[in-house]
Specification:
The structure holds 3 protein chains of 3 kinds. By secondary structure, chain A is mostly helical. Chain A is built from 14 helices and 4 strands. Helix content of chain A is about 75%, strand content about 0%. In chain C, the strands form 2 sheets. A two-stranded antiparallel sheet of chain C has the order 1-4. A two-stranded antiparallel ribbon of chain C has the order 2-3. Classes of the chains: A mainly alpha, B alpha/beta, C mainly alpha. Chains in contact: A-B, A-C, B-C.
Chain lengths: ~350, ~500, ~325
């Protein structure tokens, strides 16, 4: 039953091509989108538009890195919008009193702690992740209001606001941070035991248990990663807006989840890629920018986002359906030909 | 006699597996037609196609001579087919009568409200017809497994179908209940129904079937009159070659005791078990469903907690409360449910192999995985186990069942392995892979690993084990040496009838 | 533990009532009780629909947006079609949105939770376009006030409506084929499919029910406040889900508790009412809602865990080892 070497190589090549075709689809989509926009709208012929898109993509994108881990593990975190509001309020206050560096450290740590708390609800109280984080969505938002007494906070610290509004060598600082964290995220997922454990838990919790993985701990770490990356988003958004308010960014969790799912991470868990999330975030920012430039009504924008979401969510089943159809056709063709052995 | 069911060139493929290829068979009206084949031969897939759960990729089905397309369950019922599935398909939160008549509830015309009284009477009448005694109003959740099986049978009979398919209906039944099922089948046959009967237990097939069809690896092998066959004939048809040549291995010499189980209990599953396994020895464990052998394996691996007793590894009492501790003690475990808890379907072969020992594959100075080491691991096991895959990054779900099982085994061997616990090591894999796994088992024993193998496949136990331990209702009823092993004796111990009574088992 | 599962919610209700009676004697005044029940009705009716959904293993997160749609459709159409015509229109719009949810879930095979998350955004976008983001009101059509303010046999109409909805819901749940199918699907969807139940169609009807009950809630809401806009009802779905889960409907599906849902809705209204009377700030009330939801959730898990332990023991006696 041994296959010839040349046969194996040929199969490899085919597989690799098919694989890249599937997994880099989002990158091609982005390129096509840019080409079409470039051709149809004068604003898209200006380098600043693209730089701005990259900057804007960072804010959702950062949180999406964390969410990628979460969705790979088969869960999602709906509390991040509220958590972001709370962390942003703390950032805005902290920067005024403590300075930039200590605030950043504190907020990142708090994000980690909040995330871990979500993780504990999910693992130790065994509440399904979506419901647990739904409840936390209320609670973090309420805490944001209580903490701020319902008032918005401004910050005038230029060193701080420069993070999201400034550039180095023409490239937005926020985007530089985004790229660095994408690399870190990719390394965590692909090259560390933690990343393997996350993938394993997303594939099969039972098998993970048998492999000696501490499933609960892994999940708690995943949720703390979500919290930490959300904290990073909160810091950058506060810096971008020069302010924070307790009601900010409702629906942020949908944008983030949509970004991750559109990037090809399966909602059922088990597979995904930080790099694709990165591209997907840029694509989303491009779509938003384009909608503004084409003067799409802001309410219409929501509908479009919702439809993109639906599309992203149904991608798995659409792909499955086409695969089944292809398989059926192939088997019919095969039956017309003489049978060959299969291994 | 006319033909009730004709199956013409049915083909069905799942990702990575060809479940059925060009199967052709026919069933006469009014007969009891048995279908046999090894695990993975395609029997259940074929039945699910008849039942409208799967749709074939290609082929045709004729019912009473008419070509039909079965798109979903209701089409199947309309064709007069009822199916009793191997896995129980009941709604636990509903009552017995609701389960039985869920698609044919008697309703008031005006309001659509279900007539409880009539529902009750209908269920009772059906029960009386086939002599089953259950309370129609009790929740299915509260029933025992064999009672649930009875509900499943009632459900299939409720449609008054002309063709009734039974997929391993006796798996959870006691001897008394099996004979009750026989009489139900007799009644149905007398009323002109056609019955397709799938079973592993050859004895049953000789008891009730008129004709038998054998499937092997998704293909049709033969349809024969049962009277013209012996058990050995059927086995030969199923396996594709003579059994004697197929199973056999060299038996190694044994070393010191590696694992000793001392008065181990886990209430309420098993009590007071004591035995030991030496290095180089394969200890088989036999027993029927529910005898506590799976739980025993789980306790040894730390998936369940013992309530009493000790486990000694190399003479040292070892506490195993979690798989992590088991792995540390050199105990490895291969699950019986490969799909559910064995493989990581969306991960690559390499990632599946290395997950247990991933921390050991890291560079010393950092937390990063050393890909060099990982690739070497993959290479060595690809060679050692003769793994077949298309590329390094191919997802395990696309491999054949046999190759998946080899990956799971390789994962266990990649770590420190003193004791290897195997649950149903060859379930659902093809004959070729089975032979390879037996070869491997011999090699492992030679290397001095102590193997504990739990299997429902008696020929497998008999040919592969050095000793067989038999369990019944949570206790050890027999420990057989090589020269004492035969199917009959094992079944006697496993059914608790070793004190002289006959048995009806004979599971293959 | 069976006792807790059955009657726990009523114990909580009585305890809450006692606590708030001690803190604020006003709670028990007749006018406040009637007022409270009217307040309850809006969440309770939608929660009755949600009870069906969760029993069938589905979630509908789009009902907050459907509430906004209802208020807007009513406010814009009562002047044109009259009260009756406008309500019929609102019900039809609701049913269509429900069918859309159902089709998306069944045909695109997206988890209900995620699918309705997306339609929530879409529906809200739609209603904002429809109203162009502006408020509309019915201040010149006070006839509609009869729905929320009128009384029959001394009791306000919303209380009658609530009672009717729950009675009908319970009857359907317990005694009709549809109810049994919903329970069957929630209990074991695969088995339901194999048994020949029309699973997809049943799920679509479930979403129509959640949408229509929400329209009824929205009608009472509009008749009380006389205004409508596209931003109303944010978080409404969470209140309905909280009431349902607190009421004892199993998150895993298969087991619905209609009277539990109603009681839980009353408890939630009672707490809101009591906190208002005590002058607790809105922020803290939201915090309390979240905490109660968490409490309700972990309670279910705890009692379930105890139950499975019991089950395992009985199951073993009957000789089954399948986990």
């Amino acid at each position: 039953m041994q296959l010839g070497t040349s046969q194996v190589i040929q199969m490899n090549r085919k597989k690799i091509m098919r694989k890249s075709g599937r997994e880099l689809g989002i990158l091609y989509a982005l390129i096509v989108f840019w080409i079409v926009s470039f051709a149809t709208n004068v604003h898209f012929r200006n380098i600043n538009t693209y730089l701005n898109i990259l900057r804007e993509s960072s804010f959702v994108g950062l949180a999406a890195i964390g969410m990628t881990f979460c969705i790979i593990s088969g869960a999602f975190d709906l509390s991040i919008a509220s958590m972001l509001a709370l962390l942003a309020m703390i950032t805005a206050v902290g920067v005024e009193f403590l300075g930039v560096f200590p605030t950043v450290l504190i907020v990142l740590t708090l994000g980690m702690v909040f995330g871990a708390f979500n993780g504990i609800l999910v693992t130790k109280l065994k509440i399904p992740a979506f419901i647990a984080t739904l409840a936390m969505l209320f609670i973090y938002r309420a805490l944001a209001y209580i903490y701020s007494d319902g008032k918005y906070r401004q910050t005038m610290n230029v060193r701080f606001t420069n993070i999201s509004n400034g550039s180095v060598l023409g490239i937005p600082i926020a985007f530089v941070i985004f790229v660095i964290l994408v690399i870190v995220g990719t390394i965590i997922l692909r090259r560390t035991p933690l990343g393997r454990n996350i993938l394993a838990v997303g594939n099969s919790e039972k098998a993970s248990l048998i492999s000696g993985i501490n499933v609960d701990l892994t999940k708690i770490i995943i949720f703390s990663l979500v919290g930490t990356f959300t904290a990073a988003s909160a810091i950058l958004i506060t810096s971008r807006l020069w302010s924070a308010n307790p009601g900010m960014k409702p629906g942020f969790e949908f944008e983030v989840i949509a970004t991750v799912v559109l990037g090809g991470t399966s909602l059922a868990g088990g597979k995904g890629s930080v790099f694709n999330t990165f591209i997907s975030a840029i694509l989303f920012a491009s779509i938003n920018t384009a909608m503004n430039m084409f003067h799409v009504d802001s309410y219409m924008q929501r509908i479009i986002i919702g439809i993109i979401l639906l599309f992203a969510f149904s991608m798995t089943s659409i792909r499955e359906m086409t695969q089944t159809a292809v398989r059926m056709r192939r088997s019919r063709q095969q039956n017309d030909q003489p049978q060959e052995g299969n291994n | 006699m006319t033909k009730a069911v004709e199956i013409v060139k049915i083909t069905k493929t799942f990702p990575g597996v060809k479940a059925l290829s060009n199967v052709e068979m026919s069933v006469k009206t009014g007969e009891v037609h048995a279908i046999v084949g090894e695990n993975g031969a395609g029997k259940s897939t074929l039945m699910k196609i008849l039942g409208g759960v799967y749709r074939p990729d290609d082929g045709q089905i004729l019912i009473h001579g008419k070509a039909v397309v079965i798109k979903d369950v209701s089409d199947s019922v309309e064709c007069g087919i009822s199916i009793i599935y191997q896995e129980l398909n009941l709604m636990p939160e509903l009552t017995v009568s609701e389960n039985v008549f869920i698609t044919e509830l008697p309703k008031m015309k005006a309001t659509g409200i279900v007539r409880r009284g009539e529902l009750y009477r209908k269920t009772r009448a059906l029960m009386e017809r086939v002599n089953i005694e259950l309370n129609p109003d009790s929740l299915v959740n509260d029933l025992s497994v064999s009672e649930k099986q009875m509900v499943e049978i009632l459900k299939a009979l409720s449609h008054d179908s002309s063709i009734i398919v039974m997929d391993e209906p006796t798996a959870a039944l006691s001897n008394v209940e099996v004979s009750k099922l026989y009489s139900i089948i007799e009644t149905l046959k007398a009323r002109g129904k056609t019955i397709i009967y799938i079973s592993h237990r050859l004895k049953e097939i000789f008891d009730i079937a008129d004709r038998v069809t054998v499937l092997r690896d998704g293909s049709f092998v033969a349809t024969k009159d049962i009277k013209s066959l012996t058990q050995d004939d059927i086995v030969r048809l199923m396996v594709g070659r003579s059994v004697e040549n197929f199973y056999n291995r060299d038996h190694a010499t044994f070393g010191d005791t590696v694992i000793e189980i001392d008065h181990l209990s886990c209430a309420p599953y098993f009590q007071n078990l004591s035995f030991s396994v030496r290095s180089g020895e394969v200890l088989g464990i036999a027993g029927l469903m529910g005898c506590g052998r799976e739980e025993l394996a789980k306790v040894l691996y730390g998936l369940l907690n013992r309530t009493k007793g000790r486990v000694l590894i190399n003479g040292i009492p070892t506490e195993v409360r979690h798989p992590r501790e088991a792995l540390r003690a050199g105990i490895q475990f291969v699950t019986e449910d490969r799909k559910d808890s064995g493989i990581f379907p969306l991960m690559s072969v390499k990632e599946n192999l290395s997950i247990n020992i991933i921390k050991k594959l890291c560079n010393i100075f950092s937390l990063l995985i050393n890909t060099e080491k990982e690739n070497r691991l993959l290479e060595s096991y690809t060679k050692f186990m003769n793994l077949k895959y298309a590329s390094d990054s191919q997802r395990v779900m696309f491999l054949s069942g046999g190759n998946q099982q080899k990956v799971v085994l390789a994962r266990a061997l990649a770590g420190e392995c003193r004791v290897l616990i195997l649950l149903e090591p060859t379930r659902g894999i093809d004959v070729g892979a089975k032979a390879e796994i037996y070869d491997l088992l011999g090699n492992l024993a030679k290397k001095g690993i102590a193997v504990i193998m739990i299997s429902s496949d008696l020929p497998e136990l008999i040919t592969q084990s050095d000793r067989v331990l038999v369990m019944f209702q949570g206790q050890i009823t027999g420990l057989l040496e090589r020269n004492e092993m035969d199917e009959e004796r094992i079944m006697q111990y496993a059914t608790g009838t070793h004190f002289g009574e006959g048995f009806t088992g004979g599971a293959l | 533990m069976r006792f807790w599962e059955k009657y726990g919610i009523y114990l909580i209700a009585i305890t809450t009532l006692i606590i708030f009676t001690i803190l604020t004697p006003n709670v028990l005044s007749l006018s406040n009780i009637v007022n409270l029940l009217v307040q309850t009705s809006m969440v309770a009716i939608a929660a009755a629909g949600m009870t069906f959904a969760i029993t069938g293993g589905a979630f509908d997160l789009s009902i907050g947006s459907i509430l906004a749609v209802t208020t807007s459709v009513l406010c814009k159409n009562v002047p044109i079609l009259g009260i009756f015509g406008a309500i019929v229109l609102a019900l039809s719009v609701g049913a269509v949105l429900g069918v859309m949810n159902g089709l998306i879930v069944t045909k695109l095979r997206i988890q209900t939770f995620v699918a309705t998350l997306a339609t929530q955004i879409i529906y809200r976008g739609g209603v904002l376009i429809y109203t162009q983001g502006r408020d509309s009101d019915l201040f010149r059509y006070l006839d509609i006030k009869v729905i929320a303010g009128g009384r029959v046999l001394g009791l306000p109409v919303p209380i009658w409506i609530t009672f009717t909805v729950f009675l009908a819901g319970y009857m359907i749940y317990k005694h009709t084929q549809f109810g049994m199918w919903v329970r069957a699907i929630g209990s074991n969807e695969e088995a339901a499919r194999i048994s020949g139940i029309k699973v997809d169609r049943t799920i679509i009807v479930i979403f129509v029910i959640t949408a229509v009950t929400t329209v009824i809630s929205g009608t009472i809401y509009t008749s009380q406040l006389l205004t409508g806009n596209g931003r109303l009802g944010v978080g409404f779905e969470l209140e309905a889900i909280t009431a349902t889960i607190l009421g004892g409907t199993a998150l895993a599906g298969g087991k619905g508790k209609f009277w539990g849902t109603l009681t839980a809705a009353i408890i939630l209204a009672l707490m809101k009412n009591g906190m208002n009377l005590l002058g607790v700030q809105d922020f803290y009330q939201r915090l309390a809602t979240g905490l109660i939801l968490l409490l309700a959730l972990s309670m279910g898990v705890v009692s379930e865990r105890i139950q499975t332990r019991g089950n395992r023991a009985t199951r073993n006696q009957s000789g089954d080892t399948n986990e």
